[in-house]
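The material for today's practical consists of a large collection of protein records. A record pairs a protein's sequence with a compact description of its fold. Instead of coordinates, the fold is spelled out as a row of discrete tokens. We will come back to this pairing of sequence and fold again and again. Here is such a record, shown just as it appears in the course material.
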Amino acid sequence: MKFGEDFNWGTATAAFQIEGASKEDGRGESIWDRFCATPGKVANGDTGEVACDHYHRFAEDIAIMKDLGVQSYRFSIAWPRLIPGGIGAREQRGIDFYNRLIDGLLEAGIQPTATLYHWDLPQALEENGGGWANRDIVGQFADYATLAAESFGDRVANWITLNEPWCTTWLGNFWGVFAPGIKDLDTSIAVAHHTVLAHAEATRALRAVRPEIRSGITLNMTNHRVDDESNAELMRLKTLQDANLNRWWIESQLFGTYPQELVEYYGDSLARVVKDGDMQLAKIDSEFLGINYYNDSFIGTPTPEQVAKNAGTFVFDINSNEKAPGPYTDMGWPITPKGLEDLLVRVHKEWPQFTELAITENGVAYPDGPDANGEVNDVLRIEYLTEHVKSVGRAVAAGVPVKSYYYWSLMDNFEWAEGYSKRFGLIHVDYETLKRTPKNSAKVYRDIIATNGAILSAPDSQIDSAKHSEQGAPLGSDSSADIRRNS
């Protein structure tokens, strides 16, 4: 493995998943607060009211990151903390919190990367206009971006407008398994279009305040694998799914067009929401493209039940990963590290306009907890981490301009509709006491960062030794006892 000297190693979180303090200091209600309060929507009735209490414990978490050696921290700003109603009066106490966080990161030598939207839309915008389905959201989001840039742009150089707008569109507004819990195709298509426009307008808003700002969008992307490439219907399904997930937000910003397959497939539902001049407005240059990758997707011949379910309805409503080879993660996702290399090579080949790529999320859920000695020996996470970083390294060696890797996630946290039942973190969180315990994967990631990935080129025996290394002070040893809660 040979990463460039300017390669950036980081880790990532999202506001609703870690902050807690959901009713403190003037924060407004978000669609995820309302979704959590709706019986049956989130596993075990879990909520984000406390989460990891990062709002009060951020100094402790920064100290952990400093021990880990990360060079950058990707966090998200909660729109309801800055503007509780989504529009109108701003909340200075919310701005002050992010100022403390950003200043603390910089003091620790960690560069902040801010995400404007990681799914926690102010509930007032959903109730009073339809949220992302309402065209007004484009200007509202741009106004929020302006406030964020004015408040933090002097210290935050790298910005992400939207995190995984596909999830906002389809999980939140078609399948209804994420907030706001809507199940409507026309609504979803409107949301898909408005997120495209919002990314472009927010980018312009950021640059209007700080022309030197670097910005991009983060997309969840995958490779679609078909078990029978001679099957014309399966190949059509693959093309449509690829257009829906991978190409929609890329081609609109690069070329001012949507994939023609989807224009035809959505028909009048799309034509009704695209106004004259929209696609020119959608076209925008970005300094980088953020890619979230967890696994490849597998498309097999639909069962008779799936055919009957989807007859005359929406072709994407098919569970494809039941065709995937094992083993699986705790989320039920297949493990396909080679797919990350393949995806990066494809993105660079097909869309060379992106001169910088960033892996803004990559990680795995396993239920490992502390043993009798307080050690979290998460061997499977270590294997996932090392194999995926190697995959990034191979893409870099092939000439793909990947400049950053952010492991998801810094710590175990609220995993959306799964509540606290799934653990993605390098740091174990005891949700009763909120004690942070670095897992062995954190120690391995520390070694990867310290050697700029070179340790992954070592013989397997050396890598295995590093996986269980206890050299030096334990990770996080000076990051909890002497740090008091910040308010």
